[in-house]
Write a structure and sequence with these properties.
- By secondary structure, the protein is an alpha/beta fold.
- The chain has three domains: 3-45, no CATH class; 56-252 and 387-520, 3-Layer(aba) Sandwich (Rossmann fold), CATH 3.40.50; 273-383, no CATH class.
- The protein is 37% helix and 17% strand.
- It contains 15 helices and 16 strands.
- It has helices at 3-16, 30-45, 122-127, 187-204, 219-233, 258-274, 285-305, 312-326, 330-335, 342-348, 380-383, 386-400, 439-448, 467-474, 502-520, and strands at 56-65, 68-82, 88-98, 109-113, 132-134, 149-151, 161-165, 174-175, 212-218, 240-246, 355-357, 365-367, 425-426, 432-433, 453-459, 487-492.
- Strands 1, 2, 3, 4, 7, 8, 9, 10, 15 and 16 form a ten-stranded mixed beta sheet that branches. A two-stranded antiparallel ribbon has the order 5-6.
- Strand 1 and strand 2 form a beta hairpin.
- Helix 1 (3-16) packs antiparallel against helix 2 (30-45), helix 4 packs across helix 5 (219-233) and helix 7 (285-305) runs antiparallel to helix 8 (312-326).
- The longest helix is centred in the middle third of the chain and has 21 residues, at 285-305.
- It starts with a helix and ends with a helix.
- The model is unreliable at 1-30 (pLDDT under 50).
- Pfam families: Peptidase_S10 (PF00450).
- GO terms for molecular function: serine-type carboxypeptidase activity.
């Protein structure tokens, strides 16, 4: 019976039920209550819910990489995670791409996820290294459907199996039974859920003896720092941690601290260089960025540290140097006390063109209704691609893989309502941080497992997680000299989602193939 028919029928019964049909000893007012409960029970039974029993839908496919045809299996499915007593608490949705070994050796498996917090992982899944992806070119808004989706020549399936995981409450991942969504909404709660999902996948697919990697983007790197330590602590030794567009320390990046301005400066410089706002523009971006690093760490940091004690002469000197790197006027920089917030920079850089620059990718340009405003009205680097990713993934999932569910795919757990994130974090030393800094966790994991290698991937035009702040965070892990070689950095002419730039995607794929090959040795 259709749900609408059931509800209509119940309404008719409530209106027409004669008093004589009731038992004499039962008050008439109880009859409607009884029927309402029955209707409520039937409505609940028809709600779309995630499955407790794990499901999987697989399809064998092929892709060409470097002139070599690789056969692989694509799987969309769920993993059921449980509490300490074995009670199912959440159904975690994933898509996996696995291939047979070509040399008789065990294949690595990499677990990938986006950030948010609370984001689904369709961005990495459809944009980065899966065998099928969306194809983007120039940093401009993507036209509506039909979209350019097809084989990915820069997939990593030749080097590693890949498992893309949606966070609890996002994508098709859902709490089960009476488990509240808030159970998973926090730094440590989220890490616990991902540790259980990864462990479950490893056990279910008998991958205990295979090399294991985790790959997080944005807040996913925050997750990775703490997750690396938790997995090590629970006996799941990792071979590598890959950090894309990182934010490891939320405390130091809060507004009100001068460190945030120091961290942003090289990204401002790269953006000004890209938009031709640099006088006597150098030919090489990397060398110009290196100059900005030196200025930020040296004269600029020292000047900010002085606060109001800075002399007029020093303020003028710093403003002139700052103007060279940022493309902003000396007068504007002085009026801003040498401290330009991100929103102001994005609005001011191209104000004379009535244009703004993107936050996730400052190559993107937007047009505001109010050219005299204080900050951009929207982020052109976000709105320009959302429809492409959401629509193409759901089309791929249903038409190509044949995965069907009555659940609504959520881009974020925030879409489910009642979303409040617990930012506190219990560090490896047992102390509770009010705002998470997971560099301590990653440092501890690298000391416990001296074979653990970390690769930091960064976009020069990423204004959401500026690369210089990432460097400063990771270089404050105070690694022993013999472990410092296990930490590597790579940079690309792209934004937060490096893979939006096809040239950068190719270079990043080559860098990652080298990283996996080195791990195999």
């Amino acid at each position: 019976m259709r749900l609408s028919t059931t509800v209509t029928l119940a309404a008719c019964l409530l209106a027409a039920l004669p008093a004589a049909a009731q038992k004499p000893e039962e008050p008439a007012k109880n009859a409607p209550d009884s029927i309402e409960k029955k209707v409520a029970t039937e409505i609940a039974a028809n709600w779309a819910t995630a499955p407790v029993e794990e499901v999987a839908k697989s399809k064998n496919m092929k892709v060409s990489v470097g002139g070599r045809s690789i056969g692989y299996t694509a799987t969309a499915g769920t993993l059921t995670i449980r509490d300490a007593n074995g009670k199912p608490t959440a159904s975690i949705f994933y898509t996996a791409y696995t291939a047979p070994s070509s040399n008789g050796k065990r294949r690595p498996v990499t677990f990938l996820y986006n950030g948010g917090p609370g984001s689904a992982s369709l961005w990495l899944r459809m944009g980065s290294f899966a065998p099928i992806h969306v194809r983007t070119t120039d940093p401009t808004s993507v036209a509506p459907a039909p979209f350019d989706v097809g084989p990915n020549a820069d997939t990593l399936i030749g080097s590693t199996d890949m498992v893309f995981i949606d966070a609890p409450g996002a994508g098709y991942s859902r709490p089960l039974g009476d488990t509240k969504p808030s159970t998973f909404y926090g730094v440590d709660q989220d890490v616990d859920a991902f540790a259980k999902a990864i462990t479950r996948y490893i056990a279910k697919n008998k991958r205990w003896g295979d090399p294991k990697y985790i790959f997080g983007e944005s807040y996913g790197t925050t997750r990775s720092g703490a997750l690396a330590y938790k997995l090590e602590d629970e006996g799941v030794a990792l071979n590598g941690v890959i950090l894309l567009s990182s934010i490891m320390n939320y405390g130091i990046r809060q507004s009100g601290f001068d460190t945030i301005h120091i961290g942003y400066l090289p990204s401002y410089a790269a953006t000004a260089w890209y938009h031709n706002r640099v006088a006597d523009k150098p030919a090489d971006l990397a060398s110009f960025v290196e100059e900005a690093r030196a200025f930020a760490n040296g004269p600029y940091a020292a000047a900010l540290l002085k606060g109001q004690d800075i002399t007029p002469e020093e303020e003028d000197s710093i403003a002139r140097q700052l103007s060279r790197f940022t493309g902003l006027s000396v007068d504007y920089l002085k009026r801003a006390n040498l401290r330009v917030d991100l929103g102001r920079f994005r609005k001011e850089l191209l104000r004379d063109q009535r244009a703004t620059v993107g936050r996730f990718d400052s190559r993107y340009m937007g047009i505001d209704d109010d050219a005299a405003g204080e900050e951009p009205e929207y982020d052109a680097s976000s709105t320009g691609i959302t429809g492409l990713y959401v629509s193409s993934f759901q089309d791929y999932l249903t038409r190509e893989l044949g995965y069907e569910t009555e659940l609504t795919y959520r881009g974020s757990a925030r879409d489910g309502g009642d979303f409040k994130w617990d930012w506190s974090h219990r560090a490896p030393d047992g102390r509770t941080q009010n705002v998470a800094d997971v560099t301590a966790d990653l440092s501890a994991a690298m000391r416990i497992n001296p074979h653990l290698r970390v690769l930091s991937l960064n976009g020069y035009y990423d204004m959401a997680t500026p690369f210089f702040s990432t460097e400063r965070d990771l270089k404050h892990m105070m690694l022993a000299p013999n472990l410092r070689q296990n930490l590597q950095f790579r940079y690309y002419p792209a934004g937060h989602m490096v893979y939006l730039n096809p040239d950068a995607l190719h270079t990043m794929r080559v860098d990652l193939e080298r990283f996996y090959a080195e791990g195999a040795r």
